[in-house]
């Protein structure tokens, strides 16, 4: 059985990302990074991605191609503060699920690592000079 099945399959991921985006919607600085007025499509992309990552259907790749998350986040200034906001909403969303301790730990561990990997902007550095890339 995949991790996806073990934690309850589609309804679990639907609830997780729905609760997560409810949090994002109320978090002004984080919300401001999302280009679309409607968070529905972003919610759907994150759901498909997570379902695929945890061993469920691979609709994400069929629709979007290789995840390349770091590249896809490059247009958005992900600071440590934004990472922490993102993480806070994800942990709150996880708390609404009935995960056992082992699954909750594994999921949290993945989110911590993934969110940290996506930090691409140093909030204390000021604007990057022309031509300097921020990793
Ligand atoms: C660290 C803080 C993070 C911030 C501030 C952030 C922000 C964003 C923003 C603004 C978008 C564009 C919205 C859209 O889909 O139209 C996005 C897309 C996305 N993010 Fe994040 N994100 C973060 C972390 C993560 C993490 C940890 C994951 C995965 C575990 C993730 C997965 C995705 C996916 C799958 C998409 C859609 C990519 C696509 O197919 O275009 N993000 N994110």
From TrEMBL:
<dbReference type="Pfam" id="PF01152">
    <property type="entry name" value="Bac_globin"/>
</dbReference>
<comment type="similarity">
    <text>Belongs to the truncated hemoglobin family. Group II subfamily.</text>
</comment>
<keyword id="KW-0813">Transport</keyword>
<dbReference type="InterPro" id="IPR044203">
    <property type="entry name" value="GlbO/GLB3-like"/>
</dbReference>
<dbReference type="InterPro" id="IPR012292">
    <property type="entry name" value="Globin/Proto"/>
</dbReference>
<keyword id="KW-0349">Heme</keyword>
<keyword id="KW-0479">Metal-binding</keyword>
<dbReference type="InterPro" id="IPR001486">
    <property type="entry name" value="Hemoglobin_trunc"/>
</dbReference>
<protein>
    <submittedName>
        <fullName>Group 2 truncated hemoglobin GlbO</fullName>
    </submittedName>
</protein>
<dbReference type="GO" id="GO:0020037">
    <property type="term" value="F:heme binding"/>
</dbReference>
<dbReference type="InterPro" id="IPR009050">
    <property type="entry name" value="Globin-like_sf"/>
</dbReference>
<dbReference type="GO" id="GO:0005344">
    <property type="term" value="F:oxygen carrier activity"/>
</dbReference>
<feature type="binding site" description="distal binding residue">
    <location>
        <position position="116"/>
    </location>
    <ligand>
        <name>heme</name>
    </ligand>
</feature>
<dbReference type="GO" id="GO:0019825">
    <property type="term" value="F:oxygen binding"/>
</dbReference>
<keyword id="KW-0408">Iron</keyword>
<dbReference type="GO" id="GO:0046872">
    <property type="term" value="F:metal ion binding"/>
</dbReference>
């Amino acid at each position: 059985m995949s991790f996806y099945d073990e934690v309850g399959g589609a309804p679990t991921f639907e609830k997780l990302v729905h609760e997560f985006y409810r949090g994002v919607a109320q978090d002004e600085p984080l919300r401001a990074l999302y280009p679309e007025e409607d968070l529905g499509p972003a919610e759907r992309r994150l759901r498909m991605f997570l379902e695929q990552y945890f061993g469920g259907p691979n609709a994400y790749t069929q629709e979007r191609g290789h995840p390349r998350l770091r590249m896809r986040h490059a247009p958005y200034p992900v600071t440590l503060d934004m990472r922490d906001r993102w993480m806070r909403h994800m942990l709150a969303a996880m708390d609404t699920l009935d995960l056992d301790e082992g699954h909750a730990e594994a999921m949290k561990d993945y989110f911590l690592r993934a969110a940290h990997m996506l930090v691409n902007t140093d909030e204390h550095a000021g604007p990057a000079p022309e031509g300097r890339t921020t990793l």
